[in-house]
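Review box. Two proteins, two foldings.
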Amino acid sequence: MNQRMDSIVKQAKRTGRKVAQRLRQEDAPTLAKVCALRQEEKESSQIRVWGPYQEGATKFRLKVSEGSVERNLTFRTREEAEAVKDDLLRKLSRVKQITIAEALLEWSQNLMEVRGLKPKSARWVVQVSRFWLPLDKSLAQISQPDAKQLYSEHVSRPCPRTKKPPSAATHHEQLLLVRRFWDWGIEQGYCRDNPWQSVRKIGRKPKGKPQLRIDEARRLEAVALERAKAGDAAALGVLLMIYLGLRQGEVAVRVARDVDDEGRVLWIPSGKTINARRRLKVPEHLQPLVVALARPQRPDGLVFYPEDIVFHHSYYVNYVRRLCRTAGVPEVVPHSLRGLHATLALDGGATADAVAKALGHGSFAITRQHYASPSSVDNARSGRVAAALGSRPQTKELAALLSSLSQEQLAELLNQLPMRPTQAPRTEEKSPD
């Protein structure tokens, strides 16, 4: 009888252990449901874990909550409860469930508050990314093969607005933005790695914009000046792009307060970068036209953009093209006029640093790569060498300038230098013995 009772007790203990194991297995899906609840309800509240609380010799409770949803989990030992709590917190802190659409809006806010981007720029970053990313998925769901496929499809997909695939320069910039977006997501805990780092750019991005020839620029300037004298504010804005190298956005947002010293000075208090802040001298023949437009306006009134037209980035793009058609020259965009300014300034003898500062660049490297024509850069370098030869600089400085020239430029420079008659070496007269 005692043996039978001992057998029953042992069997009951084995059954109890099996039940406890089954309960623990049932508790794990409960934790998964708590974690999945955030994605299903798309709540922004944070999951919290309290405990363990001891409620008996063999009962330790964890409390898991998210917003108004709470779950209680019990374990037989404190060690088991602590291990489950640490594992849960580690998983929650590693990857947070949030969709790409929600993350883009949060990133946009971060760009404005932390990076200091203007609201318009932050909205543009989000808009160009939303066009080709799967907004309903989370950042962690995008793998490296997914990223490569998304980029490959985007390169060949026509844009809804232009009905053409994006240019190499456009989708290269969009790929860079997505990489930065995922890097930010890693910092926020929305994903573990960046699948876009291994995606290679497709195609070659052209450098600079097509520019007008000098005679073509003169015809365009003549048409713009005629319209500006008739009171056309946009035409005067185009002239400022040519003469001062301004961006179209810098022209469009200028207010009457920025016109200073009777039209002699134009202030650019802010712009695309911190180097865009500058004070420019308006050409003398344009000063009366600038003053005539700015004087009737209130201090914060736009000068070179019609206030009755909703602001749009393509306003000056379309206007410059119409102006080119009127002048009978190839159609270009405002960005090309900025490059034309850099080329003509270098040809006119301006130093590289002066041109870079006028365009709002931190260094001439950006100006050389995207704006000034290669020939104007080479001509300016040759001019510096000729000037250095005339002023007899130090040997090391002259050697550095000469080493930067090609063989053809050296030959042309030698042809331009005046020939000096060679003098026979002087012989020392011997004194008579």
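Next protein.
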Amino acid sequence: MNKKFALLMVLVAALVMGTISSAAAAEIKANGAWQIEADFNVNNDFQKKGGVSEDKTFNIAQRVRQSFQFIANENLKGVLEVQLGTANWGTGALGIGAGRSASLTATGSASAGNGNFMLRKGYVDFKWPGTKVNFLVGFQSLSLPSAVGGGSPVLDDHFAAAAAVVPVTDGLSLVGGFGRLYDANSATSTTAGNLSGSHNNGDVAFLIANVDMFKGFSIKPWVAYASLGKDVAGAGTGATALAGFAGANSSANEGVRAYWGGAAFTMTAFDPFKVMADFNYGKATWNNQSSLNNAKGGRQGFLADIAVDYTGLSMMTPSVFFAYSSGESGNSTDGGKSDRMPVVGTPQNYALGSFWLQGGDSLNMSYNAPSTTMGYWALGLSLKDIKLIDKLSHTVHLIYFKGTNDPDFLKDTTAGNGVTYSNFLTNKDSLWEVDVNTKYQIYDELSLGLELGYINPSFDKDTWGAVNADYRNYGSTSAYKASLLVNYSF
């Protein structure tokens, strides 16, 4: 009996070793970014309630991103990235009880612990045999081209997609693909009422040309098309319920057909000057129209920007930049049309500065970014990567924002248009922003950061007083932020 048991153990060990040997055929590489931040904010809504500034918050937030590459060979790998947070200490994923195993609630439904990780990326990356054509299939990060601002203001997010990168010549490649942005009919939902039919999906198709044929000059023209149903966010909740598509008198249950086009441009031919520019145009037409907009609703507009960096200094990089996005006209309720550029989701990275548009490294837990609002122009100066002491660097931003939306738009429309005080500027409103961000590199992988921000707003009391009497009575007040960050990246 002992001999049989010993033989069985040998067979099991051989099977396990064979499995390990097979698994070891894939090389595993890991990288990640673990960030902890103490964040103090004052008056992020620019309001005084009862004449007293009450909007003060202090939070300690944390976010963990961990990525793995499972590399079979130079032509095939799988990519997995998970994320915990962003969440404040003491709440949700970082509160007491977080991370407990799944259990059954009193009603018998499954309930997972609050500490569960969410999927950020999960896709297969491979080249077609005998070619240089690269495919990426699965849940991934995708962004339309952008030269200024750190990311696309139209589409820059994580979603399920199939994309292909096709080299044409040494200086030309094409990137095209299809993505499913939304699907209200979730097979994994634990709630009743899943939807059927074609109105619960939101899809996008895109094509990008990377043109780099001439030394010191590159351009990336692109086009995209999206179709989103009237139930993409649930029964009776369509694309126009999302801030990036909402417009004058839009109702919640309308679908959208939209297209965009643009180009990102970079020129280094006049070294040490580097010129970067973007043009983005989009138009969305609402379907399943309500009687409010007489079947003429829609949204169209543009955003253009330009930045010039001077790279001839060793201790810093000065940069001047300008951006302009179209705003609402005073008669936007005529037919329900909007004059702001439509935006998909909430673009993750586009920003000018590091406070009002939420750029920089800060998690900015307590502020709602206005990147989907549009309707402003901005003129700014940045001093980037100032290095006067070893391992210590600074970045300074000075920016003036001015609205391009007609004030009459607020008088003629109702709530639900993606318009809120503090992140929607009429042409009578403006902001001054000053940011001073410091980073000390403790180790190559570990940094300590301090981000300071100040915004001095000027909102027209008469314009906003028609929306809320408090805006007229108490006016706007300055906002401040101070964020202390510990960032471990490897």
